[in-house]
Amino acid sequence: MTTFFFFSSRIGAKLTAPLGCLVSRQKHTLPDLPYDYGALEPHINAEIMQLHHSKHHATYVNNLNVAEEKYKEALAKGDVTAQVSLQPALKFNGGGHINHTIFWTNLSPNGGGEPKGELMEAIKCDFGSFANFKEKLTAVSVGVQGSGWGWLGYNKEQGRLQIAACANQDPLQGTTGLIPLLGIDVWEHAYYLQMYLQDMQLPKSRVEFLHRLLKCHHFCSDTTLVVVPVAYK
């Protein structure tokens, strides 16, 4: 399966209030995709895109709103036990919403080729070459136990790019401090249907899937390295 990845300086920089500030905030909503469900075909078919976005991502959004409402009630009652018990749901569903909002911006029907300019220079500096970068990202991603994400992030304190993996829906920045630039969803819901439809069998391994993904992925040719948080709401 082929995907098109890119870093964009045009992503909105405004962030909503932290999850803890729940008193007056509005409910989270499922973001619209910047392209049609079928825009990435034949690499990713419309059916898997629709399922992934309108079902899986929407479930994270809905469950996050429910968890935040319960947390708001627990705050009003001063029920610390309930507040603590809701933290896993906030982390899982909040992370799922954040991760997928970033993920959709990493996909584009207009991507192509290797990155150029500042981003390519940073990749060469921190990984030696673009090929080494892909190899390391693959190794880290396939090493995720169970479900999770492979990430390219920016270490602001050290001023360098860094590859990391996060389990389940743990958000990269919230758990590692790295600013997310490129995310690979290695949950089976991101690809199992596509693989089945193409091969009439499930993928033999996650390695096979990621080799397909990274072998043909693309970056926008006019991209420069920017550290811009993705807006989510």
UniProtKB/TrEMBL annotation:
InterPro entries the UniProt entry points to: Fe/Mn_Superoxide_Dismutase, Mn/Fe_SOD, Mn/Fe_SOD_BS, Mn/Fe_SOD_C, Mn/Fe_SOD_N, Mn/Fe_SOD_N_sf, SOD_C_sf
Broad class of the protein's primary localization: mitochondrion
Domain spans labelled Manganese/iron superoxide dismutase N-terminal: 27-108
The entry's keywords: Manganese, Metal-binding, Nitration, Oxidoreductase
EC annotation from Swiss-Prot or TrEMBL: 1.15.1.1
UniProt-annotated location(s): Mitochondrion matrix
GO annotation, cellular component aspect: mitochondrial matrix
Molecular function GO labels: manganese ion binding; superoxide dismutase activity
Substrates-to-products reaction catalysed: 2 superoxide + 2 H(+) = H2O2 + O2
One family name in Pfam for this protein: Sod_Fe_C
Origin: domain of life: Eukaryota
Domain named Manganese/iron superoxide dismutase C-terminal: residues: 115-195
Subunit field text: Homotetramer.
General function of this protein: Destroys superoxide anion radicals which are normally produced within the cells and which are toxic to biological systems.
Name of the protein: Superoxide dismutase
Source species of the chain: Strix occidentalis caurina
